[in-house]
Amino acid sequence: MPILQIEDVTKVYEGKVTHRALNQLTFEVEKGEFLAVMGPSGSGKSTLLNLISTIDRPTSGEIIFNDIKPQNLNSTELAFFRRRELGFVFQDFNLLPMLTVEENIVLPLTLDNQTVEVMEQRLASLAKKLDLTHFLQKRPNEISGGQAQRVAIARALIHEPSMILADEPTGNLDSNSSREVLELLSKINRERQATIIMVTHDPIAASFCDRVLFIKDGEFFNEIHRDDRRQTFFQRILNVLSLLGGGQVGDLSSIRLP
Ligand SMILES: Nc1ncnc2c1ncn2[C@@H]1O[C@H](COP(=O)(O)OP(=O)(O)OP(=O)(O)O)[C@@H](O)[C@H]1O
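Above: the input entities. Below: the structure tokens describing the complete assembly.
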């Protein structure tokens, strides 16, 4: 059953020069799916995430989320919808520097006026699962990038959203931390049936997903599904990227995935 339906969505930015960033894009995301969105710079990936996250509205077409049409909600309902249904993970972690790790993680529950009991119970369970217990009292500038991203993932999960939207979550991480974060997202996807949409430029990151959707010039270009082996999926991702043009696919094609 789809959790998200993108139907014929077009986004035109009006300005001195009008720009059609998305053009009649249609696809669905199944509940529990881990989807990567790839495409060259300027192809409309951030625009798409902004529309799904309800930060922006489509010019035409419909976005249906669990039978709800966010376009029809007023601003209070939208803020509530966003807080309830969505969790966000960003490239630069977006943790608040003056708060401790623990305070950062429970922030969405604080905003939702949850009881201390619920906060403590969810925090303890997530901290254990995501291996955060030994630095809960530190501040973001006292932990590594990989640890910061795990904290951001915990914050995205604590209110048990229906969907996680991740924008280049490994963009600022070294390869070991990237791998840890991707394995964590895969685990969350498998064990909690969490639906994840991840925008990435990195074919290794995309190879952790169930499906990769490629867009070009704001339009659907291709999609491929993962088979049994991540290595062959990775090679197929590289093949589509080389058709898309740009990037350094040649440098990557000899990589053996760990
Ligand atoms: N607010 C805006 N006003 C006008 N044009 C915009 C605006 N935001 C994005 N665009 C244009 O829309 C197109 C798609 O941009 P978008 O940021 O969605 O691409 P992207 O695929 O996320 O790129 P990147 O990989 O570089 O982040 C680009 O040509 C961009 O210049």
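Note for the figure: DSSP finds nine helices and nine strands in the chain.
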